[in-house]
């Protein structure tokens, strides 16, 4: 039985269509649905189809095809090459699609991808072939970024989320654990910095208070010293006037040595 969906259908709508068809078919007919989904040029997400019970049943009746579907869902072209002898042969379109999905996985794990790394992972021989694949993947809306041909890198700005594989859950849990530990450490460091900052504020406040008090005491001491000097000066002035006034107060007073007596003749 041949089951086919138009390749002109959009990716999401096409996937829903294949899942709906899988509700009605089992065994070889369901396997045919999977083949058409893999060959569809607009479908890049396969988790919903992979999770369908009729498709899951293919693991016992059509294992190579089922394993290939898992690779398209969350694997890479490297995974395919490692099991190539046990898996169905890929068409040119399927090969390109799997390489695009592999590029998405690389972009999801690094913000800067070197040409050499990508060419090795995707089994591409020339930079031109790599750039063509990158551009095709960008036009498909799977990744976004900038090619730097001089540096030989692809700077990633966005990567589509792929389906989650069995091993991905453990990896995600490990990353979440690391993130939690890092957050806890950062929280403690921030708390320590906050405590130090608060202590410095208190210390600065006390220092400012000491400086203010010393300044006030110094100003008071200077003012008292000025007042004391004015008082001493005033007292000195009073003493000088009293002495001069005493002389003037006794105009006829003369020293003994200055006394004059009338001359007396000899008798």
What is the fold's blueprint, element by element?
Blueprint: H1 11-24, H2 27-39, H3 47-50, H4 53-56, H5 58-61, H6 63-74, H7 77-82, H8 92-109, E1 112-114, H9 115-122, H10 127-139, E2 143-148, E3 153-159, H11 166-249
Antiparallel strand pairs: 1-3, 2-3
Question: Could you characterize what this model shows?
Answer:
The chain is mainly alpha-helical and 267 residues long. The chain folds into three domains: 1-74, no CATH class; 89-163, Winged helix-like DNA-binding domain superfamily/Winged helix DNA-binding domain (Arc Repressor Mutant, subunit A), CATH 1.10.10; 166-231. The chain is built from eleven helices and three strands. Strand 2 (143-148) and strand 3 (153-159) form a beta hairpin. The longest helix is centred in the C-terminal third of the chain and has 84 residues, at 166-249.
Task: Calculate the terminal CA-CA distance, rounded to whole Å.
Answer: 189 Å
Q: Structural class of the secondary elements?
A: mainly alpha
Gyration radius from CA atoms, angstroms: 50 Å
Q: Count of DSSP E strands?
A: 3
Q: Which second-level CATH architecture of the largest domain applies? A: Orthogonal Bundle
| Averaged pLDDT | 84
Q: Which strand order do you get reading across the main beta sheet?
A: 1-3-2
Categorize the overall geometry. Answer: elongated
CATH superfamily of the largest domain: Winged helix-like DNA-binding domain superfamily/Winged helix DNA-binding domain
| Helix-strand pattern | HHHHHHHHEHHEEH
CATH fold topology of the largest domain: Arc Repressor Mutant, subunit A
Helical content band: 55-70%
Q: Number of folding domains?
A: 3
**Level-1 CATH class name of the largest domain:** Mainly Alpha
Low-confidence stretches: 1-9, 246-261
DSSP summary: helix tally: 11
Major beta sheet, specifics?
3 strands, antiparallel
**Beta content:** 5-15%
